[in-house]
Every structure is written in structure tokens, then in C-alpha cells.
């Protein structure tokens, strides 16, 4: 089966990308941390490479124009069968579309949007490029979670957009929502109230699988990044929140299921 023949259910996280100022230095960081190799990808938004494991695409990294002072952060892309229709729905549900929809050469059609809470995400209508082609190995995206002030209103936005089945956990100390498609969990929303990072605001967090959380956290520091939340045991494995040298925040996790 070719990559192009594989369809991802609309609403499934299918790709992650990062826009940075120093492309070469960023390649060096993630190459050392995750073992990625790099090859050029579509250049519609400027210089852009894909990180690969064993020749298979894992994630994208692009270079910002020198005059663009945007927050540096990983962005989650959600699969769609029709980027133009999804973009219209985003606008009608209170979100905004900042880029596109536009064609990324023969790879597919994309747009970059923000939900009503301000969290930026992408939508991806696959053609030649289906998105992340490897799951479960060291250096691959394993989960995507929206960190926001409270989940109820923004949860309705995503539910309307992609028809997720929503599983809520609301208690005095937890505001958490799992988004499910075809009876399997695909992403989550976590309401953190006043502890939401003021600089980041509402944002999608990418979780990357690692073989050893403690060793990977140590390597992040050696490579010029920083550890924000030290390695600790969570419900789904041992995890830590870290940032790369340009400040892009992500989570590393050794999944309990491995």
C-alpha cells in the first residue's frame, strides 16, 4: 500500500511541525536528541525540511523570515478530507484561519488556524504525504494534548469541527477531556485554570516517545535546551516537559505500554 492510499480519519492528529529562526541549529538539536535525519520538503512557506527515521517522515521544521517574531512552538496538524470546507467550519465556529488553505506542492493541502481559546493548529488534506509515517519508536510523536484554561467551550469547538466522541473527567481538581474517533482515543484537552503559562497561552503540546526519559532530559540540557518539568511517573508512563534551544516546549515520554 502506498502512502497516498492511506486515509486518516478526519480529526486524527497526523503531523507536527515547528517554525524556528535557526534551521541548521534546530536540525542539529533534534538530530542528536531523536536520531532524525533531514531532507527538504515543500518550500511554500520558506525553507523547510522533514525529519526522518529510517527514511520515513516524522515531523517538519521550517525557517521563519528574519523579521517575524512569532512564538516558537510545535504545532499539531489534524487530518481532513477537505481543507477548504474545514477552514470554513473553523471560521463559522469562532476560530480563525491565519494561513491558507494552500497547496504544499504535491504533498497535500493545508491551513493554519487558531481555536477560540487562541491555540494554533494545522489542518492537513493528504495527497502524496500522509503525515507521520512511524509510530511508537524513539523520536516519534505519540500523543497530542491541548493545554488550555478550561475545556468545556473549546471542547465544543473541536467536537463540532470533527465530530469527536468526547469523554469528560470533571472534578474539583481535574478538568480533562479525551477526544475519540471510531472508538479510540486520538487526543486530549487539559484545563489548567490559572496555572496556564501566560507566555504560551492555550497551546497544543506534542508528546514524543523516548527510550529513556531521564537520559533524554539530560541530553536536552547538554544540547542547549532546558528541562521545565523534571522526569516523573504519570498515568501513561515516565515523562518530562522540556524546551529546545529556541524555546519550543514539548513533552518526552517513555510510554508505560512499551
Descriptive notes:
There is one protein chain. This protein is an alpha+beta fold and 258 residues long. The protein has four helices and 16 strands. The protein starts with 12 loop residues before the first strand and ends with a strand. The chain folds into two domains: 7-126, 2,3-Dihydroxybiphenyl 1,2-Dioxygenase, domain 1, CATH 3.10.180; 141-255, 2,3-Dihydroxybiphenyl 1,2-Dioxygenase, domain 1, CATH 3.10.180.10. It has an eight-stranded mixed beta sheet with strand order 2-3-4-1-5-8-7-6, with helices on one face. It has an eight-stranded mixed beta sheet with strand order 10-11-12-9-13-16-15-14, with helices on one face. This is Hydroxylase. InterPro entries: Anthracycline_SecMetBiosynth, Glyas_Bleomycin-R_OHBP_Dase, Glyoxalase_6, VOC_core. Residues 12-126, 140-255 form the VOC domain.
